[in-house]
Write a structure and sequence with these properties.
Shape: elongated
CATH topology of the largest domain: Nuclear Transport Factor 2, Chain: A
CATH class of the largest domain: Alpha Beta
Largest sheet: 8 strands, mixed
Number of domains: 2
Number of strands: 16
Strand content: 35-45%
Structural class: alpha+beta
CATH architecture of the largest domain: Roll
Distance between the termini: 81 Å
Helix content: 25-40%
Radius of gyration: 30 Å
Amino acid sequence: MKKHVLFILLLFVAVMHPQKKEKNGIVYKEHPAIVTVEAMQQADIAGDVDKVASYLSDDFKSYSGTTRDKNAKGTNKEDFLKWVANRSKWTVYRSLTRHGEAYPDAIEYKDGKVWVQTWDYLKGVHDETGVKVEMPVHNLYRLNDDGKIELAIYYNYPVGRDIRSAFSPRTNGTLYNEHEYINKVRRMFAAFENGDMDKAYSYIDEKATFTGLEMPVGESIGLEELKARNSSFLENYTIESIDVVGYPDCLHYEIGNGYTVQSWWNFRLTRKSDGKKFVIPAMYTHDFNDEGMIERGISYISTKALSDN
């Protein structure tokens, strides 16, 4: 069996070796075709239709590299230039730069065709809807014998879909001012106010995560750490009352089918060391899972007032 395996491996290497031996072209880091492509891209960003046209062949076509339309015929030069003009009217603060340390490649294939592949970063804002455009883009360009761009293929996120959606008002669920989950949040804060910690934490899933205004972006804590922080806080402060401001909202989102309760409160506190009293405003959002338990909490509260006095 060992001999058979060795024979198969040797055969595999023998088959693969000729495939690696023959070169099909040369890759260049610097090339006149790269200069052409990047100049066309910057003219596009600037909305200079005439300059863009000067870099394109008469039979130019562009395609989406992610389309599922097998019959896609691409965009011809005339329509592509109209799109260049429209983009400059629709978007502001536009820029296109090389993405980080990436740089374009020019590939001269043995068949004589020259391709340029680019990795860039696009920024801008759609002026009417305010949709922000900020994303990496990857494009392929083929040049003809005259050094004109005859083919462009774009592998990019279809941000136009977001822009088109922004033109039409639509709902995304239902807003409740009375709801079972609002009741749970109110009961939870009532339990905190009255020192009934077991009941307060009973509304929270054991795998829940929490973050807040004073925590670094992306950082969160779990339930056990939340308990420890609350316990430490209560060693120094007494909760006199937690008073709702206005009324909480429960949002049921159609997209994702999620439930979030947002609520506003005034925390009335007394510092144990000197009896000084504080009123601290706070806003919270609590997300609920399918079991009706709080699975995520975000606190918008500043404790600066406590440290400055």
